[in-house]
Amino acid sequence: MSHDPFYPETAEQIQEIAKARKFIPDDVFPTVRQWSNTPTADLVPTRYGPRGFECLLAKRREAPWAGEWFFSGGRILPLEVPATALQRICRRELGFVPKVGDTKHLLWQSIYNPECEHGGVGYFTLSSCYQVWVEFGQEIKLDFTQSEYQWFTADELKEMVLPVYVQEAIAHLHRDPVRSLAMP
Predict the structure, then answer these.
(1) Residues whose CB falls within 8 Å of the CB of residue 128, separated by 6 or more in sequence, listed in order
(2) Domains in the chain, ordered, with CATH?
(3) What stretch of H or E contains 13?
(4) Angle at Cα 13 formed by Cα 9 and Cα 16, nearest 5°?
């Protein structure tokens, strides 16, 4: 397709525009961030382990969820679609790339982050959350943004105090990897 009515520029022109952007001045940035939505892709690795159905949560090192059990995830970069971002984020934060067909979109959620990593006013993310099926023996290699990870059963999760977004995504998890991932 040579012309996209939503993006009249070519992909190359958009990349050049993104490279040429200047940073928002420091005195204006908090206001811009407060009124913007940052798109993110989060992932919930799931498996059948020795204790049955389990999902993986990691403790974040950085604000706003520092020290809390949360999902691995990150920003969707310019020109990226959520599915592509998911592959990149999973590789970076957990050390593996999900197999094609082993992911399922769970939900979109607007999340208010009460603080940012470097301090300052709260901001919103528009988070796309995915379930990622992994084999029992899958090696997990955390990056620097997380301090530890753990596989939790459904019963263990019920006993935990988790952010509303995490609770909502867990409520949408599918238990049957073959049937649930084959559905549109």
Answers:
(1) 39, 40, 41, 42, 76, 82, 86, 105, 107, 108
(2) 26-182 (3.90.79.10)
(3) helix 11-20
(4) 145
Burial (0-12, 13-18, 19+ Cβ within 10 Å), 73: buried
Reduced to 3 states (helix: H, G, I; strand: E, B; else coil), residue 124 is strand
Q: What is the pLDDT of residues 51-73, one digit of tens each?
A: 999 999 999 887 777 888 999 99
CA distance 35 to 45: 31
Contact assessment for residue 37 and residue 110, using Cβ atoms and an 8 Å cutoff: yes
The larger pLDDT score, comparing residue 14 to residue 66, is at 66
Query: Is there a cis peptide before residue 64, judged by omega within 30 degrees of 0?
Result: yes
Stronger pLDDT, 18 or 163, i.e. the higher one: 163
DSSP type of residue 84: H
First to last CA, the chain: 26
